Amino acid sequence: MNLTLNIWRQANATAAGAMHRYELAGVSEDMSFLEMLDVLNEQLNANGEEPVAFDSDCREGICGMCGLMINGQAHGPEVTTTCQLHMRSFKDGDEITVEPWRADPFPVVKDLVVDRSAFDRMIQNGGFISANTGSAPDAHAAPVEKKLADLAFDVATCIGCGACVAACPNGSASLFLGAKITHLGSLPQGQPERDTRVVSMVGQHDAEGFGGCTNIGECAAACPKEIPLDVISRLNKDLRTAMAKGY
Amino acid sequence: MGTPDPSGTIPTNQPSVQKSDDAAGFYTLGAPLIDEKAPTGPINTRWQRRKFENRLVNPANRRKLDIIIVGTGLAGGAAAATLGEAGYNVKSFCYQDSPRRAHSIAAQGGINAAKNYKEDGDSVERLFYDTVKGGDYRSRESNVYRLAEVSANIIDQCVAQGVPFAREYGGLLDNRSFGGVQVSRTFYARGQTGQQLLIGAYQAMERQVAAGTVTQYTRHEMLEVIVADGRARGIVTRDMVTGAVETHLADVVVIASGGYGNVFFLSTNAMGSNVTAAWRAHRKGAYMANPCYTQIHPTCIPVTGDHQSKLTLMSESLRNDGRIWVPKNAEDCAKDPRDIPEEDRDYYLERIYPSFGNLVPRDIASRQAKNMCDEGRGVGPAVKEIQPDGTEQMVRRGVYLDFADAIARMGQKAVETKYGNLFDMYARITGENPYETPMRIYPAVHYVMGGLWVDYHLQTNITGLFCSGEANFSDHGANRLGASALMQGLADGYFVLPNTIREYLADGPFEKIDESHPAVVEAKAEVEERIAKFLSIQGERSADSFHKQLGQIMWEYCGMERTEEGLKTAIGLIRDLKKEFWTNLKVLGTADSLNQSLEKAGRTIDFIELGELMCIDALNRRESCGGHFRGESQTEDGEALRHDDEFAYVAAWEFGGEDANPILHKEDLIYTAIEMKQRSYK
């Protein structure tokens, strides 16, 4: 198929960016979206134009490194990561707009690459269970109800890609945050730090400039791992409980 | 030859004596290599005794000691967290935008541990035995025993961190049997075990970032190791955003940068997985051990065209119920498989290996799939392959994995419960519905057992340079068992390295060196010159195009089956490719900005040099063992034939200089607790 691509090009964090238009012929429907961009980049390189910078690593939907706004949707039209989106979701003659994640706390580094280090800083502020290596009791010392273990796993599948933030009109990271609070807060090991964790992580979330949640639900719709919206209710409940205790 | 000796003093084998010399002219024989840190005495107390013998570092001194760790996967991330908790001053580097993205995250199956929670006869001894045997007797027994021993602690640690392993209704951890072993010792978190373990290590590491003991440098690529006055004292990195070439100095350097499967261009590794950190260390004097040992996984989704950027693995468990076949007649290959009648199908594994059928080991299943496609009976889209003479050929690279019988026998519902997520993944990538039409599979490079040579303390032959995880060679011999990669990464990171590195650091802090030290100046200048060189060539071809061509050479001649003739051809082709690279590379953009083409150029040339060494190693090893199959060394039935009398050694290669022969050092593998045996699958 033949495509027209409108791609955001920006030389660096401070430069002004603009949309650039490229024609790409001979795209196979078996290509992944990123392989289509690889082909474009080979073409650009051959023509003496610098290739489009974009992030990707595992290309199997698990590392969370890739992420593009495709025709205004985070990760494009399917419920999956950008690397798992294939060109059979498009048709000959399509015009496709490709932009980086849109959110102030994710500044553009170059072209389609953004800086998501705010997520690391949120994890640094309590997104863990304090257990030094070697201090652990036997793994069977504390049984965990299967229902809770399954819930913890379901939300722990978050890949930290940032699609939730990019999709949210408020630029909120509440889904990311809620997933981590629910994961660690569902397990018995996570209880001792449950209150301090939520207060600290929410504080960092706000300090990074992420917006507040107004229950729009775009985040859950865009999430490639289908993290459910109700993790945000749990986040709010945990925050309320902790604050009521004076944390 | 003798029976296993519990005191660990009487060997069960003699040192091997190599009679063949296929690689004559391509290498120089160096002095034999001995692991001076190898422990002695009863095998089951070796690690315990060594931990006691290794000196401690006073807690007050730890913060004065700087540790550099390159890589944030299980091996690197776990080590950064643990050493940070101990109070050392850790600097952690990764090329990704966050430590959480390292490719350990993609491991699906699980992690082995000798917990014996199922009371099915498992033990440290059994895990040890299975791992040495699975590695085709090409690993060190002391290292493997230690791995089995600490495996149980890993599970405890991960559970304490909140890793959500699968549980039973009683709330206790569930286990499954994996990779053909007869005990259930594999812990798992659905098909995402690697992700959950990595997030656990990442969170532990981020906690230390908050505590101020770990400083993380993301989007930084290590491009050189600094060796000053005989010790590794730091690294040179490039900040991938600003392009700044920086030096980082420390008392000790750890390389935990993963495997080099991407030397084949197409593999199940991440796009960025590379050999550069390890290869730069190799060029500075670190030995590269057994580089030819490559694991090829039989059940991956086939290549669809020359746009292909990576390959995706599907769990091997599919072979439990799927039947593998190709058309008997090449003219049927383009047909809809449902229109090919039963009598025109060749269920070749069931035909050749009637007792194991579709469940033959990974390497046999892989090799036979290639043979079928080489015969012209492959299925799926024909893809372009470049022949050694430069001509192009269209070949179908795929075989059917058919669930029609399983669906008829068990019902679609049961198949869905068992394999639903894999079928969904397949459908997403191929656009085909595997419930209706047979899946297509083809082997792909998955893991490398070779890596930097390390002693029992995980220290390379460069003093102060350590190496852990897939980047080192030590634990898997010639073949890795399923669910053992995660085990090794975390064993090294949480439990081994922290207990061995303290013996080294007990002599520190070492004399401070600064940016003006000649070794630092020289290493930095080398990096800057290389970068400038890449940009100055201004030829016609992208780095990716060289990388792809290298991958085709490696896959054809140093892949599933290797022969003397093929390997010699490959070495010639790789040397030509290297020459062309340095004269015809095209990298646009600048050095002082994010430049992905520039990053690829550096990685590609290191892969090219590694590829040549892999071929020389494979050429020298005229035996078949584990993931290394030499056409010249097989039984009448086409099974791998080991030559313990000639090759029961670790091949540790020393860099011989630019365009000079590498130097081979042999470390004999001597067993006391185990006796070597040949495997058989008929």
Stretches with pLDDT under 50, minimum 5 residues of chain A: none
Strand proportion of chain B, as a percent range, falls in 15-25%
Largest interface: A-B, 76 and 82 residues
Biggest sheet layout of chain B: 5 strands, mixed
* Superfamily (CATH H level) name of the largest domain in chain A: Alpha-helical ferredoxin
Which terms summarize this structure?
heterodimer; A: 247 residues; alpha+beta; Ubiquitin-like (UB roll); five-stranded mixed beta sheet; two-stranded antiparallel ribbon; B: 682 residues; Flavocytochrome C3, Chain A, domain 1; Methane Monooxygenase Hydroxylase, Chain G, domain 1; five-stranded parallel beta sheet; Succinate dehydrogenase flavoprotein subunit (chain B); Fum_R/Succ_DH_flav-like_C_sf (chain B); flavoprotein (chain B); Fum_Rdtase/Succ_DH_flav-like_C (chain B)
Secondary structure layout:
The complex is a heterodimer of chains A (247) and B (682).
Chain A: E1 3-9, E2 18-24, H1 33-46, E3 69-70, E4 73-74, E5 95-99, E6 108-110, E7 113-114, H2 117-124, H3 146-156, H4 163-167, H5 174-186, H6 194-207, H7 218-222, H8 230-244
Parallel strand pairs in A: 1-5
Antiparallel strand pairs in A: 1-2, 3-4, 3-5, 6-7
Helix pairs in contact in A: 2-6, 3-5, 5-6, 5-8, 6-8
Chain B: E1 28-29, H1 46-53, H2 59-62, E2 66-70, H3 74-85, E3 89-93, E4 111-112, H4 124-134, H5 141-161, E5 186-187, H6 193-211, E6 214-217, E7 220-228, E8 231-239, E9 245-249, E10 252-255, H7 276-283, E11 288-289, E12 294-300, E13 323-327, E14 345-346, H8 348-352, H9 362-374, E15 382-386, E16 392-396, E17 399-402, H10 404-410, H11 412-430, E18 439-448, E19 451-452, E20 465-467, H12 485-505, H13 518-537, H14 543-557, H15 564-584, H16 596-620, H17 644-647, E21 649-654, E22 663-668
Helix pairs in contact in B: 3-6, 3-12, 4-5, 5-12, 10-11, 14-15, 14-16, 15-16
